[in-house]
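Fill in residues.
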């Protein structure tokens, strides 16, 4: 339970450095113990005690179109048409005058590379000390939100705008965060349709100095498709966590699908990027080849190799060994994995979104200064708009940007 004794409410002047540190320590402990219903009140109470006014947490919905408040008495905000959305899109603080007087301070909530939403602080004045404390509060709050949303369904309910299909619920339970990153690399993903996803999935993780990134596309668009992708992803993770190399990993996935789902198969790409050197290794199992963008230009066929059979086929059809390819990236390179639903989505005239439009969109967004996570958010929305939000196939994109220090 949350402590019954509130911290002092005097906000003018704000507490001294020592008192503020004690309040922040108390805030971390108390928010960890708070339920989802108690969290807004606890956060608001402590923000006031530290001279930062009233606090409201907004989380982005699944499609990153809306910012939805944890406090139910607050309205939602449009990501593309609000200052709060500007803070979310640019990962930067924004300040505006409130209609009722005072200031609204919008801070992005980011856990690593994963954008969660924004924190709003409503206060009378803002000085250097308060600004520092605002940033510290947002930094502390982001990982707390991440830990809570993993086990509190209220967070999932607050970030959904409509019911989700059963097979999508199952598949989403296996997905990692949309974005992960270090000082050397960012990996970010987007997939649609958010509530009717069938057999597409992505995976990314780190081991020591290596980024692992995977994309999968199962046959069909139903519960069996989701189960196929889930088994493939579980096989991939199991092999990865036992230290298997890429060829052994693919063999593990092949064997798992052949054993447990002999009538199903899926395509996929498995990659490993050595973050210190930029050496990229990959295996392509019947999937569209990865794309490589360098210095705002698509390198045609740079990662295209001989086609391999899909995953889950009998050994005699798939071949006894899978080929693993290798290349070296340059600082600033972006490589992309995608499913065919991205480039094959068609508008009412039958015109496909197409590979050229796909690559050009990323190049132009990057040149405009958009960060990797925002580039992908805009791109997946463009794919949806091309088909008037009625996709006939899953569309999934995973983009990796390598930017070593000094590169």
């Amino acid at each position: 339970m949350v402590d019954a004794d509130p911290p002092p409410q005097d906000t003018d002047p704000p507490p001294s450095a020592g008192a503020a540190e004690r309040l922040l320590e108390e805030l971390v402990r108390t928010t960890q113990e708070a339920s989802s219903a108690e969290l807004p009140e606890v956060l608001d109470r402590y923000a006031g005690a530290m001279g930062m006014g009233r606090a409201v947490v907004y989380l982005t919905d699944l499609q990153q179109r809306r910012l939805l408040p944890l406090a139910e008495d607050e309205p939602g905000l449009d990501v593309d048409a609000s200052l709060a959305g500007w803070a979310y899109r640019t990962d930067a603080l924004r300040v505006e005058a409130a209609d009722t007087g005072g200031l609204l301070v919008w801070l992005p909530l980011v856990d690593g590379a994963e954008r969660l939403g924004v924190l709003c602080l409503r206060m009378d004045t803002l000085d250097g000390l308060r600004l520092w404390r605002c940033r510290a509060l947002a930094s502390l709050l982001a990982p707390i939100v991440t830990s809570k949303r993993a086990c509190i369904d209220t967070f999932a309910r607050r970030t959904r705008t409509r019911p989700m299909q059963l097979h999508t619920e199952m598949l989403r339970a296996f997905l990692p965060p949309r974005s992960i990153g270090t000082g050397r690399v960012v990996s970010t993903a987007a997939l649609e349709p958010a509530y009717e996803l069938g057999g597409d999935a992505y995976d990314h993780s780190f081991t020591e100095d290596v980024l692992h990134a995977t994309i999968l596309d199962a046959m069909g668009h139903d519960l069996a498709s989701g189960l196929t992708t889930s088994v493939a992803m579980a096989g991939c993770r199991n092999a990865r966590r036992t230290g298997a190399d890429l060829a052994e990993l693919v063999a593990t996935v092949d064997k798992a699908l052949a054993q447990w789902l002999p009538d199903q198969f899926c395509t996929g790409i498995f990659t490993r990027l050595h973050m210190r050197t930029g050496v990229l290794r990959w295996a392509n199992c019947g999937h569209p080849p990865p794309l490589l963008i360098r210095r705002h230009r698509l390198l045609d066929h740079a990662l295209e190799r001989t086609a391999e059979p899909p995953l889950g086929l009998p050994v005699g059809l798939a071949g006894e060994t899978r080929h693993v390819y290798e290349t070296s990236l340059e600082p600033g390179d972006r490589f992309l994995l995608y499913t065919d639903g991205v480039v094959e989505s068609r508008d009412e005239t039958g015109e496909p979104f197409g590979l050229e439009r796909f690559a050009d969109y990323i190049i132009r967004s990057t040149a405009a200064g958009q960060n990797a996570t925002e580039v992908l958010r805009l791109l997946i929305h463009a794919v949806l708009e091309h088909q008037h939000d009625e996709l006939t196939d899953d569309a999934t994109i995973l983009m990796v940007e390598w930017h070593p220090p000094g590169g």
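The radius of gyration is 23 Å.
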